[in-house]
Every structure is written in structure tokens, then in C-alpha cells.
């Protein structure tokens, strides 16, 4: 997928990305089996940043096999359902203290006082963190209520309507 097409898909999902900092990260575990785990993320405008403890099992797995998928979902009804799917490679860097984007992601869903307490607690808990950066190589945004859905579903809906 061309880089501009990837960025257009992500730009079209701006309301979804602004509304949540929760996603699901898919990767291959150290034993070769698939994993999907809930994660927090922060979109910087060029990469999705996921953070975790430097000792988390996914860090070793991603160092061995960096291919990942990330899914961001929203909407509580079929008419409001939206989904952004990303594919790319994880670039991992171990940082001292907190990953800045980790705190920024938390601030999206917390008031100032709660975010300050969250940051204090995290600084006490994490000596180091893994910063997992995913530069999207492929992206697809679906907005089901607006009719922006996978082609096979659109074809089925059109056939059913005739």
C-alpha cells in the first residue's frame, strides 16, 4: 500500500483515534503461536506508540518477530461501529522511566487530577519501559454506519437489497 493511501485511511479515522486510546495488538509469540492483547496507544501523526514494562513477554516476542497488526474499534451499535486496522513492524526501544506517549495516551481519557495521580503511580512502578513504535505500512478504516465497509460485505448487502 502506498504511504499516502495509508495516511489517508488514518486521517479518515481521526474521530475514532481522538475518542479512544485503547486498541488490540496482534503479534506472534515466542513459541510461534498468535497473540492478541489489549493495549493503550498514542498516535503521534507518524507512528502508533504502545508502551509496556521492559520485562513483558511481548517485548522479547516482538524483538524476534516484529510483524504486528493493531486494531482500534469504536461505536456501541451497528450504525456507529468504526474500525481502523493497521499492519506494520514494531520498533522497540527501552527507555529509562516512563515513555512520554504512555502518559499522553492516559491523559486522553482522564481528568488532570487523575492523570497526575496515574503518572505518579507509574513513575513509582516503572524503572524502565519498552517503547513500541509501529509505523503503519497498511491501513484500512471502516465506518459501517456511513456505508464504508469491506467490499465483500458491501457486495452481500447490495445483493440482498435487490
UniProtKB/TrEMBL annotation:
The lineage of its organism: Bacteria, Bacillati, Actinomycetota, Actinomycetes, Pseudonocardiales. It comes from the Bacteria. InterPro entries: F420H2_bilvrd_red/Heme_oxyg, Pyridox_Oxase_N, Split_barrel_FMN-bd. The keyword Flavoprotein does not apply. Keywords: Oxidoreductase. This is Pyridoxamine 5'-phosphate oxidase N-terminal domain-containing protein. Residues 15-121 form the Pyridoxamine 5'-phosphate oxidase N-terminal domain.
Amino acid at each position: 500500500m502506498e504511504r499516502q493511501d495509508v495516511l489517508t485511511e488514518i486521517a479518515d479515522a481521526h474521530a475514532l483515534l481522538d475518542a479512544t486510546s485503547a486498541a488490540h495488538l496482534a503479534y506472534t509469540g515466542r513459541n510461534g503461536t498468535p497473540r492478541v492483547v489489549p493495549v493503550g496507544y498514542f498516535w503521534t501523526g507518524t507512528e502508533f506508540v504502545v508502551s509496556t514494562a521492559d520485562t513483558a513477554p511481548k517485548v522479547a516476542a516482538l524483538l524476534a518477530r516484529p510483524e504486528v497488526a493493531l486494531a482500534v474499534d469504536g461505536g456501541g451499535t451497528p450504525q456507529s461501529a468504526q474500525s481502523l486496522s493497521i499492519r506494520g513492524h514494531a520498533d522497540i526501544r527501552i527507555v529509562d522511566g516512563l515513555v512520554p506517549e504512555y502518559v499522553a495516551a492516559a491523559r486522553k481519557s482522564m481528568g488532570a487530577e487523575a492523570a497526575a495521580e496515574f503518572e505518579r503511580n507509574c513513575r513509582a512502578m516503572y524503572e524502565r519501559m519498552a517503547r513500541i513504535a509501529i509505523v503503519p505500512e497498511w491501513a484500512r478504516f471502516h465506518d459501517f454506519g456511513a456505508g464504508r465497509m469491506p467490499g465483500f460485505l458491501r457486495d452481500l448487502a447490495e445483493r440482498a437489497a435487490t
